[in-house]
Structure formats: C-alpha cells, structure tokens
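Hello,

Our lab assistant flagged a job as stuck in the queue for most of the afternoon. It eventually completed. Since we weren't sure the result was trustworthy after the delay, we are filing this so someone can double-check. Below is the sequence as submitted and the structure that was eventually returned. Let us know if re-running is recommended.
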Amino acid sequence: MKVPSQPAGSGAEADGPEDRLRRFVTIWSRAIFPVTATSLTRAEFEVHLLPLARTLCDALHARPFDTAPAQRAGAALVAAHCTDPDALGRSLGVVDSYLVLYCGTESDLPTEELRARCARLQHAMAAGYAQALRERTLAEQEAIARSALAARTAAEIALHATESRFRAVFDGAAIGIGIADLDGNLLEVNETLTRMFGGMEGRLRSRKVSEWVHPEDGPHVWKLYEELVRGEREHYRVEKPYYRGDGTVLWTNLTVSLLRDADGRPQYQLALLEDTTERRLLHLRLRYEATHDALTGLPNRTLFFERLEKALAPGDNARFGLCYLDLDGFK
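-- returned structure --
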C-alpha cells in the first residue's frame, strides 16, 4: 500500500514529540480522509485522529507491551465512518511507514524491537477494525430487520383495520351485497342478501350468477353483464327481478361493479341489491287504481285512451279493429 510521503521540510528529528505526533496525524489524515464517509472537515477529522495516534504512540512504548489499545484504535476508525475497504489498508500503511519514525525517536528500546511492536500493533488494529465492522454490520442488519418487522406489523394492523371496517359495512349494510368471481361463482354474501332470497345462503352459493335468469329480464341486462366480466365496462345499474325459493318474485335495483387487481386486471364483481318489491307493488296498486273504476273494477277512460294511443301509434302498418260498446249505461 502506497502511503503519502512525509511533508516537505519535516523530519523525525525536528521539533518536539507533540509536533512529530501531529505530523503523523497529518499524514494519516491525508491518506484516509478521501475514502471516509464523514461530514467533518479535514481539520476536524485530524482533531478526531489525534487521540487515536496518541494511543498508538503510547502503546508503542508501553511496558509491559499490550496490543489492546491498538484494537480499540481500529474499532474507533469504524466509529468514525472509515468503513471503506481501502481505509484500513491505508491506515496500516501509514502506521507501518511512519509510527516508529515519528513516535519512536525518544525510546530507549532498540529499533528492531520498535519495528516488531509496530507490526503487532498493526495486527491488533486490523483485528479491532474487523470486529467493530462486523458488529456494526450485524447491528445495521438487525435494525433493518426490526424496521422491516415494524413496517410489516403496521401493514398487518392497517390491513386488519381495513378488513374489520369492510366486514362491519358488509355485514351491517341495509342492502344486499354479494361478491363473485368472473365465472359467476358467489364467494361472499351478506345477511341482508340472504334474507332477501328467503334465508337460503346455501342455495345462493350453489348457483352461478348466470343462472339467476327471470322471464322479465330485458336482453340488455345480460349484455351489460358480459361486457363487465370482459373488462369492457366498470359498472352498470338495472332493475332486475329474481325468483325466491318459494316461487315469489323479488324485485331489485341491481348495481354491479368490476373489481380489478393491482395490475388492473378484472378479478371480482361486486353486486349491490336494493329490495324494491314493496315499492313496485305499491306503484302497481296505484297504477291499477288510477286506470280502473273503483265501483266495477273495470278499466276506465284513462286506460282506454292509453291503449288507444298505443294502438294508433306509428308502427309497421298493422291493421286493427275498434268496437265501442255501452255497458249498463257506462260509456
């Protein structure tokens, strides 16, 4: 590993120990600052490196010799965000080339002993760096795992709340609600819909949507249905009758909507049914009273002119006969 040369005009013999230590820090900072992910300025970073350099210098002269301080210095590099793969190699290169030169001049230990100690300090520094980097990586992975778990838990809670709200609306709605797949198989029906059809949920589920045909269905009803399941229509609304299990007729305002998946493909159909049977019967009753004589129950003048107008309306040139009779003085 190539390390920066010592500053011009400097030497191990110049100035005092503190000045030499600071020159060592300058060389070290010049080597690793470009590969350090820090928001500190170069000068601030050197202030941060100074106690680490002093730790290595003291360990070089310590008696008895101990490499633990160098391990702590290696770990401190990780804490200072010197985690680039090149940062450790450059640091070890600086220690190997300059620690004895700048910090060993006033030692009474032989140079060979100082070099041997420097090598052991480098090994300890690398070990401390590797251990700290491993612990940091594990901590980051654990934090990511906790965040992912928290996000998943929050999503599950939100989903559960959404499902609970949907279930409350689905079960408590005053109108009938049914969900079917695109093949017409009923997947879900609420209690209101079951009651509308006479309380036979099993019978509802056993039949496909296409089987609920009534003689009064207009041709447009099933045309709209086919367009919806093909994805050509998002919804439609019609008035539709159904047969109940007891043979009576259920009249409804039917609204069917298409439900798509996340990719926009048709997935389900949602049907909302409003029971209009009583309203329709009332309408028919009022209609009957408006078009029939209250005393005899016979069609009155209003109905007569309605039918006459219909018969005389422009058509296909069909011929008809008209016979006007007096009945017990009623005309």
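-- support follow-up --
The delay was a queue issue, not a problem with the job. The result is valid. Residues 111-172 form the longest helix (62 residues). The mean pLDDT is 85.
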